[in-house]
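Backbone geometry:

***
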Amino acid sequence: MLNIRTFVGLSLLSVLLACGGGGGGGDNGGGTTPPSTGFRVTLDRSSVSFDYEAGTLATPAVVIASSSGSLSGNLYIGAVAEGEAIDPYIEAVIEGTQARFTLRPKTSLAAGNYSGRVLLKACEDAACSRTIGGTPLPVSYSIRVRPGLSASPNPLEVSAVSGNTAAAVLKITHPDGPGGSFSDKPISDGAWLRTGTHGVGELPVSFRSMRSGVYQGSIEISTGSRMISVPVKYTVTPPPGGEFDLRASPQSLSLAANEGATSASQALQIDLPTWGSDTLSFATAYEQPNGEWVQSNSGWLSVQRTATGAGVSASAAKLSQGSYQAQILIHPSAPGTAVVVPVSFTVGAGLQKPADQQISIQAQSGSSALQGQTSIALLGTGTVSWTASSDASWLKLLNPNGQTGQALRYQVDASALESLPNFSDSEATITVRPALAAISPVSFKVSLRKALPEVHFAGPYFLLQGQTNQVYLSGRGFSQLQDVASSLQLSGQVASKVSRISDTQLLVEISPTAGNSISASIRNTLGLRSDAATLQVGGAQSYAAAAIATPGNKRTILFDAERQAVYAVNVENQTLERIRFNGSAWQRDAINVPSILDAGIGPDGTQLVVSSKQKVLRLIDANDFSTHLTLNHTAGFLEALSYVSQGIPAGHNGRSWLASGEGWGSTLSYFDHRSQRIVTHTNREAGLAEDFDGGPWLAMARNGERLLVVPNASNTAPKPMLYLDSSIDMLKRNAGNMSWAYEMQLSDDGSRVLFDFETVRDSNFTLLGQLPALPTGYVRRASAMAPNGTRVYVVAYPSSDMLNPNAPATSVPRVFVYDSSAANPGSLVLAEVGQFNLIDYPACRSNEASCIRPRATISPDGQTLFVVGNEKLVVAPIPSTLRNSTGARSNGTAATPVLRTYLWRKSAA
């Protein structure tokens, strides 16, 4: 089928043509050719061929058309692709009397052989109703697409209910056919992912029963030099009735016997985790006189496995009178958690020493969890009175007097519990004193573990009113929650969706209805306060076009939607500048930061993180610009790319990411906003180096999840680009063979990334499209990605002003807008959807190295572009028709051929 595709516009070449006689060629278009003098079009070749492997990009072929002779009238050129194998988007570049046509296969071709031809035409009108110069000229093509290595489905996503296993099958397409051999390597934490014996073109995959949560892994499949990685997502939901870890009851044992005797056996009830356990092992440890603990299986404690748990007894055959402490360690298979059962053994006459007690306060703990009791017993005949006391104000004794044989009851003071630190242990000692002086007192400890779920940070912290926002909540203790949605409190708002990623991460969807702050916290049964994160809500903002003088070379631009403020790192003047909108105009102020290097907005938006070449990190209040913290960092901060930075990125887990070091051997580190410390990041895939060569430099999505890391400063020997998702906290290699990039602009959720004005990729680093060349006469200077990833904005300067930097400007910068919402079927070139102008130049107009390119960013509502340079901050409202796209890309069908031509020569008449 004939398939003709519209071309993008190219340069116009004006030539004065002579009038006269002569003849010209024609095709089946009909009509006669205007008088000419030997006008002809010739090609440098009549055929092209391509040979490449499926899933890779073929090297384009270039066909050169040359014109000779003269004619009266305009000359247009165009190309028509026949068949379905050649990309119908055929670029043409005109250079004098030559036109270069670039041919490439479609990106979606399956393995196989293809052939056809391309007709190159010269015409006297734009509709090409009449061909001339001996055209159309055919160029035949042949395409061989060799089979590649692939797996389906990719990625692999499997779900199961905790307590059950799961299975799946990967279909393998092999370059050598279905019987081709391959090897595989499953990668996961906790060995929950396994692969089986290969079938013909199949790889069976099995999944262990696990506790509820979302598990991420991968399977590497290789043959020869080829290797692909299949991401694996294993979602495990709680079983009906909820889940629990390994449990032992009672939580502690108190045994007693006289010298030479054996205590009565006590039953220890053991409940296996709801997700099961392949193995269950027991170990015993004994306290030594010096206070150390030694594990041994030949001590005085005996643990015998039973159908419901274990029977525990103690022998005093080799013990003298006294009190002894031991522990029973019960180990389930992963991912279960080991349980420690304290055991107290009293030998001889006297009071039996109670075992140390433990109280745990969690989300579902009720008032009964605050109470406990232990028996006070005499290891002999008769009855003795006793009194008891506690050395901690938070632990109250309900019956401080009694007789042996009675239980001592105690209770945590609820009013004091509020002030005790969360996720830490508090300890009290209870001493029991017999009324008879001949019997020694006994003491035991009561340990209180307060571990209420709490929320620390949210990403993004700024939400748009009336829009659905996806928010990561970071904290700890989330695995305790049986019903996550009902446990989450959002101060008057209701989340439409809540899912638990891990013990420290929740993913929430919320549509705020009012422009106020929202407190995100986790409720608990006891009604105690816990840490909460604050979300700021604001509506869309419209700003008029403006240009504000801001002299000095800039490295970074940041936009604070909450305060309607733009921050710029002025490395030339060593200042952090702030340009705020007061409701009617933009106001500029600045603070001095000696040797300022970079800046970023903190994870909760209340502070700015500022680094300097003097090895100093500052926290600056975003409201009043006062300095809250000054921290010396002896390793210093990387100074690579002095004028290229996306700022200091902040993750939704409370980390501001930094490049530590002063050159080769630098490290990836972060400032922890809770501990107020700089920490070196070490969690990474196997085989990744712990330091970087002249890198890294970083970029992050606004929601604080996806961090991109360029590892080294050599584009001649680049290393693979790395990435880190805050919810997983593992530095990994990218799956798209990406390496070098100076600049990276991410959508708010990281699902789209613009690399170096050139390509747009998705979160799996799959190539979605390439930016086309700008029209002749424009030079790219800055770029930005729309918040939802559907638009790319490229700021370009007119070449006429760039070539005359000292003369008054004759034009203004133009913004070219491209559709990045989805891959363009049959072509890698992103479609241009429109253009608009800036009102002024933000920076100098020169290609000299001393003229630093401007920096650009965009508001979270996608309505305003901000561009700053060494001269001005330019505020550019984006036309409504060129903002975020909310629908899918609309592509034309190939059923109706369309030919668009280029004006090659223009008549002198």
